[in-house]
Amino acid sequence: MMSIARILYIFILTLGLQSSFVLAATYQDIKDIKIVKEGSYWVSEWVDFEIPANTASFQINAFSSPEEFIQVTDLIAPDGTYFVQSDSGKKLTPYSQPILRNVLSLNRTLAVIKGMSSTLVPNNPILGAPRAGLWKMRTLTHYQPLMKSVSFEIVVKSQEELAKNNVDIRVLISPDSYWTREKGHVEKVIARAKESLAEAGLNLRTLSITMLAQKTPEPMDLPSEMVAIAESKNQSDAVNVYMMPSMQYQNKPINGLACIGGAIDLKTRHACFVSMYADQRGDEISLENQGKILAHEIGHYLGLFHTKDDGYYGIGAVYDKLDDTSEIITGANMMDPGIHDETPHFSKQQKQMLRLSPALR
């Protein structure tokens, strides 16, 4: 039976021809909000939703047309603060302007896979705990979607739940890949990742390790082929980790990819994942560093960004919003992109941000 905390309250307030959708619960389900064309963009109608007192964080999961990227493009707090903002005084291309503004917003958003996005609020320590009251949001679909609607699942995490520190994973392995060459190799990688996450106060728990039924052709076309597998294989009660063969853009013996601020325990089937890709040179990466790569990708799933990302058109390098991470990539931070040094660490603020994830048990 569903707990009282998960009972859904939906209030539809109608004024003339305009509708506002208002919800209040620790789990909220918002269905079939229209997507409309506004200028050059396809955006959802504005949605109002209630965040209760004593909230530590909340997560917005948006689901729309599976062939297009979608992301929260505007998010406004009860006091009028724009956590996510698409408007810009900086002239960029007509298509990319809102998306790039989201990258620079106080609460950064980013689309990783098509058809679904997750936004963790806050993901910037300067914002503090979310204010109780009526919030307002809308989404942007990168191009014209086939489906002209978006649905949401919003998960609210209370202050009392900040004590949760377990990361439950289910691991799926592609047969005849690098990961199967030595019996027990994946278990050893997980053990190294567990050590790295323990430094952040997290406890990695493996619920299952299973082999996929069929060999995955390589190189994989990402993210589409990984999304297709995750949609059919994901289980909702854990972070789904995929150990896969090489991918199309493999630039190292082992690469990783993960959703940022991913979810568990959603009603809607989703394709969020943590994944690692290895070609036959995988042994060039030490077992310790393989574990660090996995811990790094799990860090993304729990809401952390790279300390620095290069190459955003029109704005250049983008840094995380944390005061205690370096703008120089040295490999000393667990969320530095690339190979890490022997003793990478999570910073104090990164550890605080990790605890905000609703994926922790």
Short description:
The chain is 15% helix and 33% strand. With 361 residues, the chain is of the alpha+beta class. Helix 2 crosses helix 4 (287-301).
How would you characterize this protein structure?
The protein is of the alpha+beta class and 361 residues long. It has 2 domains: 27-161, Sandwich (Jelly Rolls); 166-355, Collagenase (Catalytic Domain). 15% of the residues lie in helices and 33% in strands. It is built from 5 helices and 18 strands. It has helices at 97-104, 185-198, 224-233, 287-301, 348-354; strands at 10-15, 18-23, 27-38, 41-44, 47-51, 55-63, 70-76, 82-84, 116-121, 133-141, 149-158, 166-173, 203-211, 239-244, 254-258, 274-278, 308-312, 316-319. The strands form 4 sheets. Strands 3, 4, 5, 6, 7, 8, 9, 10 and 11 form a 9-stranded antiparallel sheet that branches. A 5-stranded mixed sheet has the order 13-12-14-16-15, with helices on one face. It has a two-stranded antiparallel sheet with strand order 1-2. Helix 2 (185-198) links the parallel strand 12 and strand 13. Helix 2 packs across helix 4. It is globular, with a radius of gyration of 20 Å. The model is unreliable at 1-25 and 89-95 (pLDDT under 50).
Reconstruct the topology from this structure.
Elements lengths: L9 E6 L2 E6 L3 E12 L2 E4 L2 E5 L3 E9 L6 E7 L5 E3 L12 H8 L11 E6 L11 E9 L7 E10 L7 E8 L11 H14 L4 E9 L12 H10 L5 E6 L9 E5 L15 E5 L8 H15 L6 E5 L3 E4 L28 H7 L7
Parallel strand pairs: 12-13, 12-14, 14-16
Antiparallel strand pairs: 1-2, 3-4, 3-11, 4-10, 5-10, 6-9, 6-11, 7-8, 7-10, 15-16, 17-18
Helix pairs in contact: 2-4
